[in-house]
Amino acid sequence: MSDYNFLMEIRLSPAQLRVVNHLSRVSAGMGLNLYLTGGAVRDLTCGQPYIRNLNFTVEGNVQKLLRALTADDGKKKKREKGSGPSFNELSPKLEISHFNSRRQVASLIYAHGVEADLAMAHREVRPRPGRDAEIAPAGIFEDLRRRDFSADAMAISLHPNSRGLLLDPTNGAADIERREFRILNSRGFLDAPECVYRVLRLSRRLGFKLEERTQQWLEAAIESGAWKSLNPESQGRELRAALQEEHPARVLRQFAQRGLLQGLNSSLTSARIFYDRLEKIRSVARTTPGADPFVVYFQTLVEPLPPAHRKQLAKTVLVYPPIQRLATGMDGAARKLAKALAGSKGAIPSFTYRLLEGQPLPLLIYILVRHPKATIQNRIKSFLVRAPQVRDRLPRAELHALGIEPGPRAEAILNKLFMDMLDGKIKTQPQITKAMHELAGISSEHSSKHTPHQLSKQATAKPHKSAK
């Protein structure tokens, strides 16, 4: 039996673990049972190198928990304005990007880009295949048993009294050990056609095979055309999931070869898909620190479509309005930014840095992939690669040793050093040290005769009246 507390500690990112702890703390304080469920538990169990998404299920009222989470976030912000320790470690910044009142599912965006879904434990009754299911509150075991595949029907308790306990009512862990997907209902692909897309996508990513009867039921569902009856919400969710895969071009090509693209959006059936460009985006993103190419993948997929179709797909797939605006306006923003980079000032690294600082990273990836001029690409690459290396050389500790405490003055000195180092005005370590002393108003000769403690007192002392 795996130690899931240990797995969460070592396999979740620090930011993800803070989110888990935050939700666990708040829900326990309300007397609610909270569980980590779905793909996160599957990926922890089968040894995936990183956990993509966090899915939480609560036995109880989701809106009540959301209000508590929002109130907790408000307390943190109020506390941070005053004195005393910060709440950052306990309460990461939270934004509710979407809430489906019918399904009682909320999409959360935390600090550092961590995304999570919070859902009510429930049971489902589908009146017709592909139609919205009727839902009602249920316990966690009933919720798990109504899920699609055994590998996704596991949960980890996050309640303090049972934290780390695995719930596996359908024996999903054994199927994961065999590296196979087993659907839990013979009509699963017919009643929930989104499962057709999900099992093809996940089996490719994880290298799983389909259990024999699951394979037979899948082929029968594809042959029947059940996948054509997806509702818009499911279409958007499955297309979003395909674009978030490591190899979206391969996933989309697999769907196209099976004739399944129409079920995700009828516009995609006749549209040209730039598979080679999708692969190039992936290649560029892999060499760009901190890059998430999802929005660029989306823009490339919908580019051949009419503007009205692009806008509608953005609402369905991207959900979050700022991301929608970024995707639909990316081409125009890229042309404007590239024009500024191409000017004579663009040759000055400090100008390029100020121009690119704060720009969305997907926009920079888009230019790297699409712009034909090597000069423009090299200036962006310098910003992404060289600038962080230069910043790492800034003498923060040495400046503090001169008596300059962390704060606005220290940052102003370091920023001036940074810009001069970028522009090549300062290159060697002696030059950095000399410039630092000059900017701090302390001569090198003077500083060598005093201890850091004496320098600190001198730097903070008020000038004598006779010195005026």
Strand content: 5-15%
The CATH homologous superfamily of the domain at 1-177 is named: Beta Polymerase, domain 2
Share in helix: 40-55%
Mean pLDDT: 89
**Head-to-tail CA distance between termini:** 76 Å
Molecular structure report:
By secondary structure, the protein is an alpha+beta fold. Among the domains are: 1-177, Beta Polymerase, domain 2 (2-Layer Sandwich); 329-392, no CATH class; 396-467, no CATH class. Helix content is 55%, strand content 10%. It contains 25 helices and eleven strands. The longest helix is centred in the first third of the chain and has 20 residues, at 62-81. The model is unreliable at 78-91 and 447-468 (pLDDT under 50).
Top keywords for this entry?
10% strand, 11 strands, single chain, seven-stranded mixed beta sheet, two-stranded antiparallel ribbon, alpha+beta, 468 residues
Task: Indicate the topology.
Elements: H1 4-11, H2 14-29, E1 33-37, H3 39-46, E2 54-59, H4 62-81, E3 94-100, E4 105-110, E5 115-120, E6 122-125, E7 134-137, H5 140-145, E8 155-157, E9 166-167, H6 172-177, E10 180-181, H7 188-191, H8 194-206, E11 209-210, H9 212-224, H10 232-243, H11 248-257, H12 261-264, H13 275-286, H14 294-302, H15 307-317, H16 321-328, H17 330-342, H18 349-356, H19 361-370, H20 374-392, H21 396-401, H22 408-422, H23 429-440, H24 444-448, H25 452-460
Parallel strand pairs: 2-5, 10-11
Antiparallel strand pairs: 1-2, 1-8, 3-4, 4-5, 6-7, 8-9
